[in-house]
Amino acid sequence: CFNLGSCEKCDFETDLCKALHELYLQPGWIRRNGRSGMGLPYSDHNGNDSAYFISLSSETRSSSATLRTNVFLPTDKEHVCQITFHYWIGQISGTLMVGLQKHSEDTITNIWQVSGELQNQWKTNTITINSTEKYEV
Asked: According to the lineage, what is the superkingdom (predicted)?
């Protein structure tokens, strides 16, 4: 679940959220809930087993898959970007990374990551992003 400040909230209940760019073109991600019969997690971060979230499909667990946001406008003192998300790592070898790509750059800068944290529970993180130009996360 992504919470993009007061601007937008993505909860995947009716579809995929507007903040994510062309999710269906990114292989490996599926929209599901705890009742899907796909194993852990059996509910979302609020304990609701019928609430939807996205996860990696079982075929993708040994490789990587990317989610990409739409373009965000530059930040300044009045327009701060904070992205809050809930995540679950179900493999000891899994790594979740958040990267920032400014429009003038070809490379993605890693701004946060977590790995080796098999605790089978939802965790929450908030990232504040500062960029003087348009960017994607």
From this structure: Eukaryota
